[in-house]
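Give me the fold.
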Amino acid sequence: QVRLVESGGGLVQAGGSLRLSCVVSGGITTIDRMAWYRRAPGKQRELVAGISKFGSADYANSVKGRFTISRDNGKNTAYLQMNSLKPEDTAVYYCNALMLTTSSEYWGQGTQVTVSS
């Protein structure tokens, strides 16, 4: 059974940094794409950043230049380095893994990020 476990969330002041991690375990074939989404209170879930198995990354305009997504294929782990955090970055951040060979998509349980002003 595939399982995604996020860590690294917390409370930080505006301008600070956090690094989120997502470890994928169990029944893994090839993880074609890993991504981070977030859901802020009262808002819909939105894509923050995604990265292919080849390392090609894409970002939401709101985080470009501040966030960096990376992955370690050998460890089945994705990271989200978040710098220059703003109060509007406050949300629950979810890890997502896409495996095309099994047409499967998986989600983590989420980790809370709170940025105080």
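The chain has a mean pLDDT of 95.
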